[in-house]
Amino acid sequence: MLTTLWLLLSLAVPVPGFYTPISCPRGQKCQLALLSGNDVLLECPLFGGHWKYYFSMSKESRAYDPSKVSNIEITSENNLAITNPLPSQKGLYHCWDKSNTEVIQFEIDFQDMSTVHITHNALQVMPLQNQSVREGSREIMFTQWEPWQDCNRCGVPGERKRLGYCYVDEPLEDPMPCGLYLGEVLGWSSRMRPEVQVETCLVECKDTSFAPVGFVIYDNFKFNEEQESLWLHCPIASMYRPVSWEANNTPLTWQNELSGKNLHSTLDIPSGGRQLQIFQPAIYRCFVEQEVVAQFNPLGALKPKEPQTRENKTQEPVSKTLSIPLWLKLLPFVGTVLVLGLLLLKTLSPLSGKSRNRTLLVK
């Protein structure tokens, strides 16, 4: 029961594993580029500490309490959880101890994933080329690449990706994220965007008990006459992690998505596949770090819908029955578990709960 309760509560509050952790050595200033729309956790595990946020790169600008921002929360460990960060939230994030001494400073450029440039080794698309900041200038905008992520599947053909961030190289200076270097000077440029490279891969499955989460979520969905599409949400999926989907055991690949061959579904690319828009019933499963984390089963036997054109697939669906955050759906169940736990402590008698459509299977 305590294990189930921990799993449910972990969906309701930010915890390590659900947000990508970003650390910085104590007493240091860390300058980095990150991606908009992908959750991160800025670490500053300091009892009694507090955070300050500056929209600009100058400490002389007004300081804000980041916990007052709707998509930012300070965890019980004093870490800063940022949900779906916006490009406009670039700036300085400072962690201070209770004596008002600065401990850690993050300088972050949240690069706009709505403008991302994606290439695949099986498709004829070229990466972005280096470009001068201004005509005739010696400052060059280029892409700084991270290492390749692991293959998103094992034992079967899969894909892997690596992330690239826009940086400016200035003579005799360290490279700097484009948004921090140019944001207040040049404004936006078509070269100031992140990149993603994808390639096919095939790796053997390792004999390990590691899993990104300790459970699998089973959920049901159903189309009605007015709906053209639904949205499915994959827990803990992110552009920072290897993610994949399949429909009726058929992989929904990045290659097919980029070439328009995923006729009955659309991967949400800016979120790294955290969301999948579907246009016909099937059994859908999502994998994170090669492990299945969720399965979505159709209710009833419905006639498959006709394949949608790419134009129709990008339209906003009439209804998103699964667009409600997962933790909000499970919140009533959390309350039920807490009440049952209290009764159990008082009566020491076995209790049974109501059955639900959604099931958490602990691994």
What does this protein structure show overall?
It is a single chain. With 363 residues, this protein is mostly beta strands. Among the domains are: 2-6 and 17-111, Immunoglobulins (Immunoglobulin-like, Sandwich); 113-201, no CATH class. It has 5 helices and 24 strands. The protein has helices spanning 2-12, 178-182, 254-258, 310-313, 326-347; strands at 20-22, 29-35, 40-42, 50-54, 63-64, 72-74, 80-82, 91-96, 102-111, 117-120, 131-132, 140-145, 158-169, 176-177, 195-201, 215-221, 230-233, 243-247, 250-252, 265-267, 275-278, 284-288, 291-298, 359-362. Strands 10, 11, 12, 13, 14 and 15 form a 6-stranded mixed sheet that branches. The chain has a 6-stranded mixed sheet with strand order 19-18-22-23-16-24. Helix 1 (2-12) packs antiparallel against helix 5. The longest helix is centred in the C-terminal third of the chain and has 22 residues, at 326-347. The protein is globular and about 60 Å long. One of its GO terms (cellular component) is membrane. It is a single-pass type I membrane protein. This is Protein FAM187B.
Could you provide a short overview of the structure?
13% of the residues lie in helices and 33% in strands. The chain has 363 residues and is mainly β.
Put simply, the count of helices is 5
Sheet/helix structural class: mainly beta
The radius of gyration over CA amounts to: 22 Å
H-E order = HEEEEEEEEEEEEEEHEEEEEHEEEEHHE
Helical fraction equals 10-25%
Shape estimate: globular
Distance between the termini: 14 Å
The CATH fourth-level homologous superfamily of the domain at 2-6 and 17-111: Immunoglobulins
The CATH class name of the domain at 2-6 and 17-111 reads Mainly Beta
Unreliable sequence segments: 1-13, 301-329, 346-360
Reported CATH architecture of the domain at 2-6 and 17-111 = Sandwich
What share of residues are in beta strands? 25-35%
Q: Would you give the CATH topology of the domain at 2-6 and 17-111?
A: Immunoglobulin-like
Number of strand segments: 24
Biggest sheet features? 6 strands, mixed
How much is the average pLDDT?
A: 80
